[in-house]
Amino acid sequence: MTCPDCHAELKQVTHKGVTFEECPRCRGRWFDRGQLRAAKDRADEDLRWLTFDPFEGDADKQGVAAPRVAPCPRCGVQMGAFQYRTSGVTIYKCTARHGVWLGHGEFEAIVRYLERMIDSESAADFAKDAAKQVGRIATQEGNVASEVRDLLAVMKLLEVRLAVEHPSLARVAEKIQEYSPLK
User: Fold this and answer.
1) Dihedral sign for Cα atoms in the order 57, 144, 128, 160
2) Measured between alpha carbons, how far is 8 from 151 in angstroms, rounded to an integer?
3) Mean pLDDT of 126-132
4) Residue 162's domain spans which residues?
5) Which residue spans within 16-162 are E strands per DSSP?
6) Per-residue pLDDT averaged across 130-159, rounded?
7) 76 shares a domain with 55
């Protein structure tokens, strides 16, 4: 496969257990379908519950950017472009649904954007997110084991946010845990 930006031969790279192709010259990255989510989940476990599939739902309505004039490295069809949520990062995706292309540093920009998004959520927001995850598990949307891991990630963030927003409640919970016979 060749880089859609500088036409160098892409090299296979494995980072944190996720294998993708990277351009040795311009450092752009090709993620086959599903690899972008896997890379995001491995980059920061707290982000795993934030689902955004560039090929599903309303991804194309997320701020369409200028059309890509380069072909998909996998199949050669012209790629479409859109913005990752409201991050300002443009993702180029294969219109035949093979994968996505990110320029140098854009994957890291997505991770930083998602971390800022989490930092801005309140305990009430995390409680709503947890309820949505429970609903996904109950209706068996997607892989149940993965959805349970997503729920646990949200619950951990909810616990931390509650402790920040309500320190006296956190101290009471610590005391209950300290004196609990059910340790």
Assistant:
1) negative
2) 41
3) 94
4) 123-179
5) 18-22, 29-32, 79-83, 90-94, 99-102
6) 90
7) yes
